[in-house]
Amino acid sequence: MTTVDYDQHAAEYARHRRPYSGLVEHLIEYAGLTSSSRVLEVGCGTANHLAGVQQETGSRAVGVDPSAEMLHAAADHPAELELLRGRAEELDFPEESFDLIFSIDVIHHLPDPGPYFSRAFRALKPGGLLCTATDSEWIIRNRVPVARYFPATVDAELARYHPVPALAASQRAAGFSTEHERVLESFYELTDAASYSQKAFSVLHLISEQDFEEGLTALRADLEKGPIEANMRICALWSRKPA
Description:
Layout (H helix, E strand, L loop, with lengths): L5 H11 L6 H9 L6 E5 L5 H10 L2 E6 L2 H7 L6 E5 L12 E7 L9 H10 E11 L2 H5 L4 H4 L2 H9 L3 H10 L3 E14 L3 H4 L11 H15 L4 E13 L3
Parallel strand pairs: 1-2, 1-4, 2-3, 4-5
Antiparallel strand pairs: 5-7, 6-7
């Protein structure tokens, strides 16, 4: 399967990707974040969610990502962020450093998430929380416009996404207790195909050029008739390190 070079696509991500509706607020509320909290986002990319958390709470916010270009784009946020280059499975922070560690649309990039969960467990304070935001099979199959106009993305995504129950089991194996699962969703009117024509979504780089062009042509044709009702969904899986 084709892999995605995030250094190459950082500009498109910074231009088009936005935080999931309600996710920043959900992270803050569920974790009870305050100005004294220390928060780590793993695979932060352009750090949209981390910046939102920091600006809303004043917490100390650290972001880690393997892509230098993604971190360069993340540095444009007005939020106070500490940005470090690194990989999820190689986290190397002192024990009991963070109140919350979270990742968004990242865990499917790890063939084996176990080493990441073990390192996150070590870096969390007792009672600290881990949030893994990912997509379930149902979310993948019901994405609009992606699954509707680019159906080849469904198999491509199912091949790389871990089932949510398997993630929960892997977290428990690392010492966490699974305590909550919530799907956040929002709907909006899509009025142009710019973000899709520029492949601002990584899975569009994983399908054939023919499948991509056919989907883009159909999407543009329908948009000429009027806006398309689209959706954004994410599953937030919460686990806690025992106090």
